[in-house]
Each structure stands twice: as structure tokens, then as C-alpha cells.
Amino acid sequence: MLLQFCGNEFPLNYLNMMKRYIFYLNVLSSLYSQSLWYGGNLKHLNDVTFTLNVKGIDDGVWEKRLSSYIELRLLEHNIRFNQNQMPKMVIDINVIDSRVDQVSSFQALFSIYNYSVSETDYYGSMADTVITKKLMTSKVFSKEIMGQTSSQNLYKDIERGINSLVSHYLEQWYIDNPMKQF
User: Fold this and answer.
1) Rounded-to-integer distance, Cα 110 and Cα 139, Å
2) How crowded is residue 58: how many other Cβ atoms within 10 Å of its Cβ?
């Protein structure tokens, strides 16, 4: 039996074979796909240095309010802010506030940076019994939100996005530090 598709004729067993091939390909690709790259990176990160960078809006009062909200939200979970130490929590907010057009855009990037050692230096120092001093700064957690909204709702939508990013961070922090729940 033949099936006609766009002027071409395909045998049905060929189509069944292609369906099976695509199914197996999907199963294998999902089995070998990469998991969360930051899983386990937030263990024992109880104190962080905090930096809030806002570009595109010159409203110091709103920035201070947003910074205080984030600090209070993390203090609820016993995560404290230090000065000039690692790990470092950085929240970058970029805003294009268009009063002329109806749509304004924003991007919020939530990142945690910490010191790390490359794998080759780590294993080399284990063999030499000499502690390596080749530390580098690496991103151990990152999450980003982009959005579009009207100029009237811009602050509310950015705050909603920041709340979502902090919630995601806290969820991952509790996954990596399960004993902190009690």
C-alpha cells in the first residue's frame, strides 16, 4: 500500500520505520541530555556579598526598596549579606523604558559567583600534596528573566520577575542544603 504525500509516494512500512526511528532518537536524547549545571553548587553558601546593578532607570528610591526587599527575603531563610567577600550575589537589571511606544522591555539576571579551582589544578595539587593557589572566579548559579510590559506596569513587572528569580534561587538552595529546612 502506498501513501501519496506532495506528489511523492511512500510505502507505509517506510513511514512506520521513520516513526520508530524518531521515537528512539527522542528517548535516547532525553536519557543522555544534560541535567541542571548548577546542581549542588549552592551547598554551604549561607553568607553572600550582594550587588544590585540597575541600568536604564534613574530611581534611587526604587533601587533601595528593591535591594531591601531582596535582603529581607533572604534573611527569612537565614542567608546573610557580608561585605567584600565571596560568594557574591549579583542582580543585573537592564531596562528600556519607552514612554513614546506602548511597550517597555526589561531583563533581570540573577547570578552567584564563587571561587573555584580547575580540575587539572585540583588533581595536580592532590598528587603533589601542595595546595594550589590558582583560584578563579566562576559563576555557580544563574537564572534570567526577560519581559515586555507597559510603562505604567514596568516597576511592578520587574519586581514580580525579581521575586520569581529569588524564589527559584531559594528552591535550589534548599535542594542543595536540605537540612536548612528544619
Assistant:
1) 11
2) 8
What integer pLDDT is reported at residue 24 of this predicted model?
73
Q: Where are the alpha helices (DSSP H) in the chain?
A: 12-31, 60-75, 119-128, 154-176
| Distance spanning both ends of the chain, measured CA to CA | 65
Q: Amino acid identity, residue 75?
A: L
Strand partners, 114: 138
Q: How far apart are CA 170 and CA 162, in angstroms?
A: 12
- Own/partner contacts of 96-101, CB < 8 Å, gap of 24 or more, are 96/56, 97/56, 97/57, 97/151, 97/154, 98/151, 99/151
Q: Tell me: the pLDDT tens digits for 81-131?
A: 888 888 999 999 999 887 777 888 999 999 999 887 776 776 666 666 666
Answer yes or no: are the C-beta atoms of 142 and 168 closer than 8 Å.
no
| pTM of the shown model | 0.71
φ/ψ (deg, to 5) at 81: -100, 135
For residue 90, what are the β-bridge partners? 51, 111
Mean pLDDT of the region 129-149: 82
